[in-house]
Amino acid sequence: MIVVIFRATVKQLDDEYLQQAGKLRQLALDHYGCLEFTALCEGDKEIALSYWPDEDSVLRWKNDPLHKAAQQQGKRSWYQDYQVQVAAINRQYTSG
């Protein structure tokens, strides 16, 4: 399993951002194999965690035309800066 960690400093989030984020989340889950997607904002910081079955799924998502357009819009309008980390999950533990 792969986790993609997106961290950003928010510049300005508007209604267009909220609409795009919802569409893209659903697209990732429905068409690219995303297993789970969670995003949180606190102050001007945003973090999103998405879980994927394999790296090929992540690369296909990265290259989706709507996702690429949103990335460009994010650079222009929504985020002051951002960082993306991709990591393999070697073990997972749960309670109960």
UniProtKB/TrEMBL annotation:
Q: Which UniProt keywords apply?
A: Monooxygenase, Oxidoreductase
Upper lineage is: Bacteria, Pseudomonadati, Pseudomonadota, Gammaproteobacteria, Alteromonadales
Keyword presence, ATP-binding: no
- Gene3D superfamilies, alphabetically? 3.30.70.100
* Cross-referenced InterPro entries: ABM_dom, Dimeric_a/b-barrel, Jasmonate_Hydroxylase-like
The UniProt record lists the keyword Oxidoreductase: yes
Name of the protein described by the UniProt record: Heme-degrading monooxygenase HmoA
Q: Which Pfam families does the entry link to?
A: ABM (PF03992)
List, in alphabetical order, the Gene Ontology terms for molecular function in this entry: monooxygenase activity
